[in-house]
Write a structure and sequence with these properties.
heterodimer; A: 204 residues; mainly alpha; 75% helix; B: 564 residues; alpha/beta; Spore Coat Polysaccharide Biosynthesis Protein SpsA, Chain A; Serine Threonine Protein Phosphatase 5, Tetratricopeptide repeat; 3 domains; seven-stranded mixed β-sheet; 41% helix; globular
Chain lengths: 204, 564
């Protein structure tokens, strides 16, 4: 069997039908139409049985519907087909996160980010888990890498500022929050946190 | 079955040849007999192989079908030549027994040729349909790509084909001048014919997808693919085609005479002749002026090469004087032996010829790129060369040219043939490096300067998407998809919409693309959307005005699908 001939060029290769139904499925997930999405993923899996994408999609649907066991199974299949599937690791991390297995979730989010440092879902998941566990060092590094690629992402800047504050680095947190407010003067979360930071700095 | 014909419109002869592929024959035949244009004859030849009676049974009642049932396998070229002898249409077109046309194919091409009488050939675009063949022979469609959508380029047509034969329609009378298929060829027989046609006429490109040819993923049973596996045979056929000189006059192609200037008949001369054959493609004759004592030694396996008697110890000027009365070509290339030519050069002569073909009336000779003062060579119009020799019959041809006021210079790189391909290669390299923004700018430049607008705008939009410039990609793709939707273009538009958070519209484009892949009817939800005209839309509108066509209803394919 030929491997899937994917290309970034239009009108080349034979992945087109697969990509169209797979991405249509992703679109339906965004629209909350899980039945249609599932149909698309099934079709995509029939077209390319060795591709992990449709199983990741099915896992995400199960996760959204709170069917954690189904989701776990789907992500496992996806990882068997493609051990480098960052999205499948992110999915497994979210399951562990929801089950309250913070250490496991932490490790899985890290695995995901090792494969794809651009995965915002994993980044924010890692941030939440880190806050719950009080372990900030590694997540700060990942957030910094992400911000290097997306310099204007204020939601990630805010997370980073929060972590710096928790990590007893209020001056760096203040700088970040001021940057956010320059970009978004009406950002009340940033303004409130800045007020708290200023207060803490004044006390010291 | 609809066998009624509208005899007020010209008769079209559709030629099809089948050999050992009854599984797909009904789809191919059905796609012909379901054409919206009704006044045609379908001449189907069984070129030996397994019987097809069962496969064609449903179509036998259609009086437009002429079936030639031959037991013996004589090859496609032979079969098509016999079919041409039977053909009586004003126009001729071809379909392979495993491909399919969409219902408007004939109508689009007849309309093009009827409205543009200056063209002898018109061709459309086709989907290359990748498919996975099931054990029962069913084909699962994996992609429908428009791999080639290229405006006519005679240089490319001479060097290698760019018009798929299944998409070509030509005036039948052209065959009386160009001849039919070359029955000695094993591969590339289609290109051989289209190449010869371009000696007599320009081709009109109609950038509309009117059919599909199948490309199975994995081992392919296509006869042409199997036959290309023999590399030596393939190259021999390639050279045979490139050395074919159809009957004159050639209204669209000035002839070229190559004078190979050799000190003696030796290995260096043979190497030069071999190099000319493998590294040039323009149709030509080779003349080798040799002294009478050398003449007897002249033997070459290269076609279209003749030796001419020149005086003993003659200089270059004298040798040229010996050849000129023997040739009538409009252009002359003077080629010394022993030039150092890069092995991957494919347009050795053409680099100096094309500036003359495309230039004005300036008196100029273009030197060969590798020429040196010691080993000098150039391409020049025969008339100017004759004038120069009349002005001063010097042993040194350069002095003759100077005496006649003829400039001598090397061609600029920008004057070389295949500029479009060079730009395209450059853009591809930039894409490989990951600089999609720069690639988009190159495609924009090509679209403006070199044409092939629809194709270039698609590549530009794709580059914009990967450069994360979703707004620009969308602005390019939306208006094109209103008139020329293809799965690839719809995929680009859908991805942009998805990235921009417009999921409903993105889903609509994905569904539309899927419908085309599955040959289903689909009504896109585009009525409520306001599409702002863009620069790209303006280009395309002018292209459409030129050709007068827009993409047909994507539901057209469904009628084909429904038939089977």
């Amino acid at each position: 069997m030929d491997t899937l001939n994917r290309t970034r060029l239009p009108d080349r290769g034979w992945a087109q039908h697969f990509e169209i139904v797979q991405e249509l499925g992703d679109c339906y997930v965004q629209l909350g139409d899980y039945e249609q999405a599932r149909d698309c993923y099934e079709k995509a899996a029939a077209l390319e049985p060795d591709e992990a994408g449709p199983y990741v999609g099915t896992g995400i649907i199960a996760l959204q519907q709170g069917k954690l066991a189904d989701a776990q199974l789907a992500f496992r299949v996806a990882l068997r087909l493609n051990p480098q599937s960052s999205k499948a690791y992110a999915g497994q991390a979210m399951i562990s996160h929801q089950r309250g297995h913070m250490q496991e979730a932490f490790e899985l989010y890290l695995k995901c980010l090792d494969l794809d440092s651009d995965n915002l879902t994993a980044l924010l998941g890692l941030f939440q888990v880190s806050c719950a566990m009080g372990s900030f060092g590694r997540v700060i590094e990942y957030l910094k890498v992400y911000l290097g690629m997306h310099p204007g992402d204020t939601s990630v800047m805010f997370c980073l500022a929060t972590l710096y504050l928790k990590d007893q680095k209020p001056k760096i947190a203040r700088e970040l929050l001021m940057n956010i407010l320059q970009l978004e003067p009406a950002n009340t979360d940033a303004a409130n946190l800045l007020e708290e930071v200023e207060h803490r700095l004044a006390q010291n | 079955m609809n066998a009624s014909c509208d005899h007020s419109s010209p008769l079209v002869s559709v030629l099809m040849c089948t050999y050992n592929r009854p599984r797909y024959l009904p789809e191919a035949m059905g796609s012909v007999l379901a054409q919206s244009y009704s006044n045609f004859e379908l001449i189907l030849t069984r070129d030996g192989g397994c019987p097809v009676k069962d496969a064609i049974e449903p179509f036998l009642a259609d009086r437009r079908l002429v079936f030639i049932d031959r037991q013996e396998n004589r090859g496609k070229a032979y079969s098509l030549n016999r079919a041409i002898e039977r053909a009586s249409g004003k126009y001729v077109c071809y379909l392979d027994d495993d491909d399919a046309w969409y219902p408007q194919h004939i109508a689009v091409l007849v309309d093009a040729l009827e409205r543009h009488s200056q063209f002898g050939v018109a061709y459309s675009d086709l989907y290359k349909t990748h498919c996975r063949v099931q054990p029962d022979g069913r084909r699962i469609v994996l992609s429908k790509n428009v791999e080639i959508s290229r405006d006519f380029d005679r240089m490319v047509m001479l060097q290698f084909n760019h018009a798929l034969h299944v998409s070509v329609m030509h005036r039948r009378q052209l065959l009386e001048r160009a001849g039919g298929y070359n029955e000695t060829l094993k591969v590339l027989i289609d290109w051989d014919l289209t190449r010869r046609l371009c000696f007599y006429t320009d081709f009109l490109h109609v950038p509309v997808v009117t059919g599909q040819y199948y490309a199975p993923v994995g081992d392919c049973d296509r006869i042409s693919v199997q036959q290309r596996k023999n590399v030596n045979d393939y190259l021999r056929n390639l050279l045979t085609i490139r050395s074919t000189r159809p009957p004159k006059p050639w209204p669209c192609l000035p002839d070229l005479a190559v004078i190979v200037v050799a000190d003696q008949c030796d290995a260096s001369l043979e190497q030069t002749l071999q190099m000319l054959w493998s590294q040039s493609f323009y149709p030509r004759m080779h003349y080798v002026p040799l002294s009478s004592d050398q003449l007897a030694n002249f033997r070459t396996g290269i076609p279209d090469a003749v030796a001419i008697t020149a005086p003993q110890g003659a200089a270059m000027g004298d040798k040229i004087d010996a050849v000129l009365p023997n040739c009538t070509a409009e252009f002359v290339a003077i080629v010394p032996t022993g030039l150092q030519v890069e092995k991957d050069e494919i347009a050795f002569l053409e680099r100096s010829l094309v500036p003359l073909l495309t230039g004005g009336s300036e008196k100029v000779a273009y030197e060969l790129a590798e020429a040196t003062p010691q080993r000098w060579g150039a391409v020049i119009s025969r008339q100017h060369l004759v004038e120069a020799r009349a002005a001063l019959a010097s042993p040194d041809v350069r002095q003759s040219l100077a005496a006649a006021g003829i400039a001598v210079r090397k061609p600029e790189f920008t004057q070389y043939p295949f500029q479009f391909d060079n730009f395209l290669t450059a853009a591809a390299q930039v894409e490989q490096s990951g600089d999609w923004k720069k690639a988009a700018r190159i495609y924009d430049y090509i679209a403006v300067e070199q044409g092939n607008t629809l194709w270039m705008r698609t590549l530009q939009a794709n580059a914009c998407y990967w450069a994360k410039d979703y707004g620009e990609a969308l602005a390019l793709m939306e208006p094109i998809n209103q008139t020329h939707p293809t799965p690839a273009r719809l995929l680009i538009e859908a991805r942009c919409l998805q990235k921009m958070g417009q999921f409903e519209r993105a889903a609509d484009r994905y569904r539309w693309a899927e419908a085309i892949l599955e040959a289903r009817a689909y009504r896109p939800a585009r009525g409520r959307e306001l599409v702002k005209p863009t620069a790209a839309a303006k280009d395309l509108n002018s292209q459409e005005t030129l050709n007068g066509y827009v993409e047909p209803d994507p539901a057209a394919g469904s009628r084909l699908g429904a038939a089977f």
